[in-house]
Amino acid sequence: MSLDVGVLSIQGDVQENILSAKAAIDELGIDGKVRSVKTPEDISQLDGLIIPGGESTTIGQLSLVNGSLKVLKEKIENGMPVLGICAGMIILSNTASDRIVGKTDQPLLNILDIKLERNSFGRQKESFEADVSLDSINIPKFNGVFIRAPSVSDVGSDVEILAKFNDRVVAVKKGNVIGTAFHPELTKDISLHKYFINLVKSFKN
Ligand SMILES: NC(=O)CC[C@H](N)C(=O)O
C-alpha cells in the first residue's frame, strides 16, 4: 500500500507543506509520496490532501473556475482526509467574513459547519507565534505560527474543537477533516503533519 498525498497548488504555501508531509511519511516509515496537485484529474487520484494557507478568495475562485472545487467536495465527502491550513480552513467552512473588509462572497466548500472570521488577529504585520495545545489528538504543545489568521466564531455541534488561543477557536476537526488557523508547516515540529498522515493511512486501510 502506497499513500498518494497531495498539496493543492492553486495558490499559496505549497513547498513547506510538501517537505513537512514527506518528513512525516519518512519518520512514520510509511510508503507514500507527496506531490503538488492542481487539476480535478490530479485530485481525483489522491488518498489525502493538504489545502495550504494563502489567499482564500483566490484559491476558492481559481479552483471553482478549473473545476477542482467540485471534485474536492465529492472526495472529502466520500472520506478523503484533508488538512486545511489558514486559507485552507476558510475554504472548508460554510461562512466567512472579513474582520477588516466585512462580508466576502467567496467560493467555499461547505464541508465544516463553522463560521470563520478572516484576518481575525489583524494584518500581515500583526503576525505572531504562540504555543497552542491540541490535547485531544495528543499534541499537548505546538508552536502556532499565525499569519493573517482566521478564528472560528461559531462551531456546529458535530465539529470538535482541537485548540483555542486567547479564547478563540484556532483548530477544529470533524471526522476526516482538520482545520488549523496557524501554519504547522512553518515550524520544525512535524507532529501535526504526522497526525494527518496517520489519518490518511487509516482511511486508506
Ligand atoms: N496565511 C493565510 O492563509 C492567510 C489567510 C488570509 N487572511 C485569507 O483570508 O485568505
From TrEMBL:
Residue positions of the active site: 86 (nucleophile), 183 (charge relay system), 185 (charge relay system)
Top-rank taxon, per record: Archaea
Record's catalysed reaction(s): aldehydo-D-ribose 5-phosphate + D-glyceraldehyde 3-phosphate + L-glutamine = pyridoxal 5'-phosphate + L-glutamate + phosphate + 3 H2O + H(+); L-glutamine + H2O = L-glutamate + NH4(+)
Binding site residues for L-glutamine: 54-56, 118, 147-148
Entry GO terms, CC: cytosol; glutaminase complex
CDD domains: GATase1_PB (cd01749)
Involved pathway(s): Cofactor biosynthesis; pyridoxal 5'-phosphate biosynthesis
One term of GO molecular function: glutaminase activity
GO biological process, one term: L-glutamine catabolic process
Claim: Lyase is one of the keywords in the record: yes
A Pfam family recorded for this sequence: SNO
Keywords: Glutamine amidotransferase, Hydrolase, Lyase, Pyridoxal phosphate
EC identifiers of the protein: 4.3.3.6, 3.5.1.2
Similarity comment text for this entry: Belongs to the glutaminase PdxT/SNO family.
Primary role: Catalyzes the hydrolysis of glutamine to glutamate and ammonia as part of the biosynthesis of pyridoxal 5'-phosphate. The resulting ammonia molecule is channeled to the active site of PdxS.
Subunit relationships: In the presence of PdxS, forms a dodecamer of heterodimers. Only shows activity in the heterodimer.
Full protein name: Pyridoxal 5'-phosphate synthase subunit PdxT
Organism: Nitrosopumilus ureiphilus
